[in-house]
Design brief:
With about 230 residues, this protein is mainly alpha-helical. It has eight helices and four strands, in the order αββββααααααα. It has a two-stranded antiparallel sheet with strand order 1-4. β2 and β3 form a beta hairpin. α1 crosses α3. The radius of gyration is 20 Å and the shape is globular. The protein starts with 12 loop residues before the first helix and ends in a 13-residue tail after the last helix. The C terminus is likely disordered.
């Protein structure tokens, strides 16, 4: 049955929205650091590029899991509301960081260079982050809802992974390309895109058993099963 909302007063939606925005902000700050694991050596002594990813990879995939819960339980309209809220919060945080960065530091405070290097406004990274996030999350929610409306028994796992495959692809390619094309060499950029994408999708796959239990729990909390909205997540 089609479901575009969880009634007039959802019980858990606000908590998921808060966690969604918090994880997004944490990921955006953590993403300012590129991490390289390696170097790795293949059989025969061939030197491979180290695995390159950013610090946001620690928490950002969790926003897709929460996004899946929002779309599956509450429908596209409420998922879109959360996504837009996250976008606005991220933009406000960027503005605040920029204002603090350009404010004259106290002479006795010797951390201006460190502050700027981590939280200073880098237009390309900000643009890549916001564009990738907005397009990726909206695609993730839209694909999940469309698959849900055509659902067959036992298809929840397919909907969750299918939407993530599409959403994370758009997000990762857009962010990495906008933020780092021409800044790092093409080999590193390709490594960054592939490693980031595989990691994010892989993490959601690993956490899928938790998501498969979380969504039915949320539906019961919102009274959706009592209203006859019984999805085949079993």
């Amino acid at each position: 049955m089609k479901n575009d909302g969880a009634g007039s007063a959802p019980r858990v939606y606000d908590l998921i929205l808060a966690a969604f925005c918090a994880l997004l902000l944490i990921a955006n700050v953590a993403a300012t650091k590129l991490i390289a694991v390696g170097p790795a050596w293949a059989p025969g002594g061939v030197h491979l590029l180290p695995l390159v990813f950013d610090g946001g990879a620690v928490t950002f995939p969790l926003t897709y899991i929460l996004g899946d819960c929002l779309a599956e339980v509450y429908g596209f309209a409420k998922a879109r509301r959360a996504i837009v809220t996250g976008f606005v919060v991220s933009a406000v945080a960027t503005g605040v960081f920029f204002l603090v960065d350009i404010a004259p530091p106290d002479p006795s405070w010797g951390n201006q260079v460190a502050w700027h290097s981590v939280l200073g406004l880098v237009p390309r990274i900000v643009a890549g982050s916001l564009v990738g996030y907005l397009v990726g999350q909206l695609l993730n929610a839209q694909v999940l809802v469309k698959l849900r409306d055509r659902a067959r028994p036992g298809s929840l796992w397919f909907r969750l992974l299918g939407s993530t495959v599409v959403g994370e692809a758009a997000d990762t390619v857009l962010f990495c390309t906008i933020a780092y094309a021409g800044v790092v060499d093409w080999g590193t950029l390709g490594n960054y895109i592939v490693v980031g994408y595989v990691y994010k999708v892989g993490l959601e796959a690993v956490l899928l058993p938790i998501t498969l239990r979380l969504i039915p729990w949320l539906k019961r909390r919102e009274g959706l099963t009592l209203a006859g909205v019984v999805d085949a997540e079993q």
